[in-house]
Design brief:
Shape: rod-shaped
Helix content: 55-70%
Strand order of the largest sheet: 1-2
Mean pLDDT: 83
CATH superfamily of the largest domain: f41 fragment of flagellin, N-terminal domain
CATH architecture of the largest domain: Up-down Bundle
CATH class of the largest domain: Mainly Alpha
Number of strands: 6
CATH topology of the largest domain: f41 fragment of flagellin, N-terminal domain
Length: about 300
């Protein structure tokens, strides 16, 4: 049966187009170095890759959160440790000044020492990291503690709130990395600041009994600060563990995504070359069968 020239031309044209399309796809694979460049390449694989990309994006956000959390916790730990050191020194000074061997002159001289400690504690209670206050609850842009009177303070004023600043470290998992300042240092009238202000008053009044009485408050303050420091350390450890888990998950997801979409370059080059050879062979075959130039036909 004789095959019409038009049918023959259309068959050759279709075959060459198919091979040309395959060659173009192979070239795109090499250019992008990815197996999947469009939905038709691998619909199931593309969905998996998109899910993995979303997961990796979430991991990156969690990593940023953890970095922020570590910064807050370590700044808080440093501040609390320094406050503990100050209170320890204040306690030693109070024991010394409560002694009957000390008189009005020595106690009056100790007033400025305690005043200096008071100012240091205030500064540490207003610790910032990244420009945000860590002991003011979620009021991170507002200085949490001030004195009622900067020259001769009688109490402190707390301007934060009772909601500690938190970060997200997992789905529906938040971790408090900031502090409610009043919970950390006590409310006005029964705070670390109150203890130090009262001690100053007793030293100024040469009141040995009053000085001795502050020791119980100092012990309570020290116990609370040590508890907070320990709690902060445990949170830092928790973030370290979480970070290691995230590192492993990121590596697993990255490897999985690479296996789905990354190419074996040498194999891809061989595939392209084979398709180029097939194209050239098809051109030569078509030219012999039809005894005409494909270019002439296409014109």
């Amino acid at each position: 049966m004789r095959i019409a020239n038009k049918t023959l031309y259309e068959t050759v044209k279709r075959d060459l187009n198919n091979i040309s399309s395959e060659m173009l796809s192979a070239n795109m694979v090499i250019s992008s170095r990815k197996k999947i460049n469009k939905l038709s390449d691998d619909p199931v694989g593309l969905v998996a890759v998109m899910d993995l990309r979303s997961s990796l994006s979430n991991i990156k956000q969690l990593r940023r959160n953890i970095n922020t959390g570590n910064s807050w916790l370590k700044a808080g730990e440093t501040a609390l440790t320094q406050i503990e050191d100050i209170l320890t020194q204040v306690k030693a000074l109070s024991v010394e000044m409560a002694s009957d061997s000390k008189g009005a002159t020595e106690r009056a001289n100790a007033v400025e020492v305690v005043n200096g400690y008071l100012r240091q504690v205030m500064s540490l209670a207003n610790t910032r990291t990244g420009g945000r206050y860590i002991f003011g609850g979620t009021e991170t842009d507002t200085i949490p503690f001030t004195f009622d009177n900067e020259t001769t303070p009688t109490t402190e004023i707390y301007s934060g709130n009772s909601n500690p600043f938190s970060i997200k470290i997992g789905k529906d998992i938040d971790l408090e990395v900031g502090r409610d300042g009043e919970a950390a240092f006590g409310a006005a009238g029964s705070s670390i600041f109150t203890t130090l202000i009262d001690l100053k008053t007793y030293l100024q009044g040469n009141n040995a009994g009053g000085i001795m009485g502050t020791l119980d408050s100092l012990d309570a303050d020290l116990k609370n600060i040590r508890s907070l420091t320990s709690n902060t350390g445990m949170k830092i450890i928790r973030l370290d563990v979480k970070e290691r888990i995230i590192d492993d998950l990121e590596l697993t997801n990255t490897d999985r995504m690479s296996s789905l979409e990354d190419i074996d370059f040498a194999e891809a080059v061989i595939d392209l070359k084979s398709k180029e050879l097939a194209y050239q062979a098809s051109l030569a075959s078509a030219s012999k069968v039809m005894s005409i130039s494909l270019v002439d036909y296409l014109k």
